[in-house]
Amino acid sequence: MQQYLAALDQGTTSTRCILFDRSGHACTTAQQEIAQIFPRPGWVEQDPIELWTSSLAVLRQAMVQAGIRAEQLAGIGITNQRETTLVWERATGKPVYNAIVWQCRRTAERIDKLSPAEAQRIREKTGLVPDAYFSASKIEWILRNVPGAAEQAKNGDLLFGTVDCWLLWNLTGGSLHATDETNASRTMLFDIHRRRWDKDLLDLFGIPAAMLPQVLPSSHRYGVTDPALLGAAVPLSGVAGDQQAALFGQCCWQPGDAKNTYGTGCFLLMHTGDEAIDSRHGLLTTLAASDDSGGGYALEGSVFVAGAAIQWLRDKVRILESAGQSERYCSQCTDTGGVYLVPAFAGLGAPYWQPDARGMFVGLTGGSSRAALVRATVESMAYQVRDVLEAMRQDIGLPLQALRVDGGASANNFLLQFQADLLGVDLVRPACIETTALGAAYLAGLAVGFWASREELARIWQANHRFTCRMDPSTRAKRLEGWRRAVDCALYWARWENRSTAEQEVPHD
Ligand code: ADP
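^ thats the input. predicted complex w/ adenosine-5'-diphosphate below
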């Protein structure tokens, strides 16, 4: 009877289940969309029951598609949208409020009110730059705004969990209240150095310790599913937040190993071994996936607007019919003719940190064609990724060996070649670009012996394509100089409000 490993991937827009065989091949995928609830501008919620029922549904659907029974599942690995916050009743399992999604900005003002000393403590203990994304202020909001919740929490009647924890609770019929270290590291309540919940931060946000789940390694035997759910008890043996799961699924286990996911935005993670590196560029320090013998750290940086700029060309500017078409335009010209796009639609993140910057095309001439504009947009993804990687390289002090890539836009060969050219290192695209799910499967499979060791995984992991730098150093230097000038223009735009009196004197006749 052939055995499989199920990866349950509960993401922001959909819930998916992928079944992997022993060779790491994805055999079948089942998927359901998740409804987004926007009660007010800037607020984002999801229905906790839908998160759970969609998870169970895709698990069952994947088993039907593959024609297998629960006994053929060697284990289940869970990976999830990080930071999204749920609170439910210990006795009934009933959520007291909707899931508050990571993107939700309702607690932004609360975070702004943190004193510099409080912000510093958060940074030192959690490795995070204080933000409304993380779970802490979301839990506080629920306790302050749901009638009776604070009292119930004080009495030990309420439980908090990120999505992984909520799914583990439901999959075990309410018998397990646990999360893994990677998810805990995104709550802004977890001391990543001591690897435990931090009393001081819990007090800062008024959160009773009794609400918090037990924190376990990412690759670990958590328990088994309630036999009534899938027809037999299946081991739950791997849990990791989506980005850390992808890092693991890309076999990035050594210091300096890095991956980038090219999606709507980009998520870059670099493994830093046993050292928690304090970034000098505003990057986040976070926990990499762990096992029973421990785990390391990672540096994390993101690019706000990557594939989203291609979507903008398609949906708003309307010079593209599909995202995939962008690659054809890129190859219609030999270069952009000096045109750059800085897609600072929502400000600039690492390493510039200028929220007031705005997007701009620069270097336009009467000869700038549609192809040049599309190419400049695709190239802007690579420039931004290079900036974040350069910041990471400076923080960690190690040269980058190779960059492993995934995500929807990694299908664009021009983009990846240009990225390799800019970085001067090889880019490797795996055969299975579902690396988030693959990472969850690897973690779960190692814990139950489905795969014997990381060495075995490194052997079965397959590359689809390697992109090698073809650009000469002088061309690269010229392109990078152009990009820096373009970024300067976007930064100058942001500085206008604070310009000096001399600068304000606009000459006129
Ligand atoms: P997410 O998981 O963030 O929703 P995906 O990984 O599915 O995103 O990637 C989708 C994004 O990638 C979209 O923003 C889309 O514009 C972009 N994209 C998809 N295919 C290409 C392509 N061939 N070239 C450039 N961008 C692409």
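The CA atoms of residues 264 and 307 lie 4 Å apart.
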